[in-house]
Amino acid sequence: MTRLSRRTYLTLLTGLWASALFWPYPEAGGIVHAPILALTPLWLALTDIIPGHAWKKRVAQATVLYGELVIGWGHAASPGHLLHDIGRALKDLESLQVTQWQHLNAHLAVPLLLGGGWLIWLVTRSASTPSQRFLLWIIGLGVIVLNHLLWGLAGVGPFTAFAILGLLDMGYRHLSTLRLEDGGESPRWPLWLEMAGVSIFTVSLATGVTLPTRHFTLRWQWFNRLTPSIPGPAATAVTGLSLSDTNITRSVAPQATPVLLIHSPAPAYWQDGVYTTFNGLSWSNPAGSPTTTLPKSLWTSNFGRGVVSTVWHVGVTGLTPTPLEHLVYTGDPVTFSVLTTINPNNETVVSLPTKHYQLVTEVPRYSADQLAIAQIGSVPRSLAPDLAVPGSLSPRVKQLALTVTHGAVSPWQAALLIKAYLDQHYRYSYSVTPSQENAVNHFLFGDRRGYCDQFSTTFVMMMRLLGVPARWVVGYTPGVYDPSQKGYLIRAEDAHAWAQIWLGSLGWVAFDPTPGFAGPVQIVHTPPNTAAIGSTSGVIPLNRTHPTPAPSSKALPVHPVPLPSPRTATPKTPPHHDRYFAARPIGAQWILFGLGLAGLFAGWQIRRRSASAMAQLWQQILKGTPRYLGHSVQGFTPQGWGRAWLRYFPDDADIVLAVVKTFNAGFYGLHGLSETDIDAVSSRWRELRRRHR
Q1: What is the domain partition of the chain in residue ranges?
Q2: Per the confidence metrics, is the pTM higher than 0.90?
Q3: What does the pLDDT average to over 289-311?
């Protein structure tokens, strides 16, 4: 008969307690397999119960830390590489204000986070007296609150877990001391309660069910009251539309919150604001006087008289608890169903709070010939702000723009060449390395990665340097069609930034330079497809749910490092006061550990099968595409495949965009694709083949 020792139980409880304090840091960093890294103190606790000499424990701890580094990076690293990246990370932190540390590159942050997890474990383990444990409990709660206020890290989940686990730890130690003084035995906990808790915890971790520690809406009133009372900067940027925050130097985290349901004849880009002035870090507009109501004469048309347009009747419904005040639109609005206030400087439309509005708008439709040959001619004096660039912009940017567009005979051709260059030499990533220098300089010649804000801003600056007026636009991409609601469901992660360029007689023409996007321009000979394209709820739209790492590194699953097993030597019969379990069959603790390993293995198998099915489907599409395009697309990314297909079959934009979005979410997202997503992509691929038999 054997029972789990009191020391082992307290060691594991301390590991969980320390993990609750450490958890918010990896979860906020955009790190792959963040739940595994977030439990660093617990894995170290498992090594601490290994019997034998201390050197065995130190070797096991080093193995765990290195294994987690491999998981976080997706590859092994030499000591020289590790030291180099730690040096880079410390240098970046030194150059940043403390309140901007959350913008540190995720790759560089991994070794620092693991070191922090190790230190948290050491401090928590070394607190042995009741007064030390209580002081640690108070300090830990304060640190969690401070993390939330300074960097926008998760608060309620870790706060609750740390508070409860700390009380359990201190309570158990106190009761154990009292009973031992009375000659009794340590407190006992039901075996079924332990087994249930460990099983739920490990299975949730293995299958990717994130514990409640990500970005959230605070629900506790006292926490809500506390937050604004302590000064601090804005939280970590998340995807979503904000006209008041146009800083493009920070990393973002995706949010899938539904925000709008739009009933329109076809998918479209939905504009919310336009910006003209860039200072090297953020966008702004000169102040102006708003105009109430919307007579047609007060709205300056964005496109010229020679452009064909169609009239759309659109319905927009807000899906958030907060009513709509900023009204999105496409094309040139004619009328709104609610009283509106127009700001002509940034072309925003504001109304009294409403949950629904209708819109009549004229949507321009260009011909390919119009765009290809359009010239800007004489630029009106009023467009001078749309040619301005900040003084901090490097001369190398203009040199690069001239080199990339060499041979272009029109602004539109120059725009296409710049987009092609950005597609080929820069990658889409949520995580950007923080810098205080001009964001365009840093993107082009330093970081070489970013999301829509960096791509579109760089495009605007390069076009301006070529003498083409350009401006920055924010709004939403089309979203995903929802057959059940017969409309386009737009989420916070669909928030997007693109550009408009001035093409003389054609006026302002929208252009999207970000990789993987079909673009907002309607072409005359490819009328919008009003047929609804079905989609499952599991499909994640493309724009801000894309990749944090390089495509090649995320297309393959990363196998979790096996956890060190707590080896329990066959002991001599210990004193009864060093045990807390009642007598039970031999191996009860191994049942608990086995359940945990089974949960991890099950989750790994689920993810591996999902990744395998996704990879097989992608290879099937790549092998089948040459039959229709006449050339190989092996090695293409989803964005590259989509662009290649649309060059030959532009009418397929709706289906191709959905396929690209889904594969990007699978290859570069954190959780792969579900079977429903894979079935949906298979159905779309069959539809594409059926169309072109």
Answers
A1: 6-229, 258-545, 608-691
A2: no
A3: 61
